[in-house]
Amino acid sequence: MTIERRLARAGFTLTRDYLVPRERVWDAFAHEDQKRRWWGAGDSIEPGEWVFDFRVGGRDIDEGKFHNGPVTRYEATYTDIVEHVRIVTTYDMWLNGVHMSTSVASLEFEPINEGTRFTHIEHGVFFDQFWADGPGREGGTRGLLEALSNYLA
After folding, report:
1. For residue 40, what pLDDT is reported?
2. CATH at residue 118
3. ∠ CA(42), CA(47), CA(50), 5° rounding?
4. Which end of the chain is flanked by fewer CB atoms within 10 Å, N or C?
């Protein structure tokens, strides 16, 4: 089977207001024990390798196998962290060992009267057979923000 070599780009912005203080939302990303409680696909995945190194230049890895399905792998590098203000990462995704995408994501934490306005902005490049995965990535990120909301509630 010949793989068509192509690239696609996708970007999106998601904004959520959480009814908790900015420090609480921040801590859900900055502390490993908290992030493990909401990050990922929950019970639908068998956890694999996990690395958490929250610092500029640090790396996160989250690998898992969906029950009777593919193995996904997320590898991120933190490129900028300003406490309680922003996190910027570059990250790569693999599906069954095939490199599917590279993204840059910025996470912004803004205090508002009712709590915290969280903004996730992402720009991705999708490779070869994964060229149409941009909408799926946005949907997956929406799922993560919903899991965060449930965790913070």
Report:
1. 74
2. 3.30.530.20
3. 110
4. N
45 assigned to some structural domain: yes
Which structure tokens are listed for 115?
């709590």
- How far, in Å, CA of 13 to CA of 89, rounded? 15
Q: Judge whether 39 lies within some domain.
A: yes
Structure tokens at 140: 């997956």
Tell me the one-letter amino acid at 74.
Y
pLDDT in tens, 82-107: 999 999 999 999 999 999 999 999 99
Q: Which structural domain range is residue 146 located in?
A: 7-152
- Rounded distance, CA 119 to CA 141, Å? 12
How many domains is the chain partitioned into structurally?
1
β-pair partners for 43:
none
Q: What is the mean pLDDT of residues 58-82?
A: 93
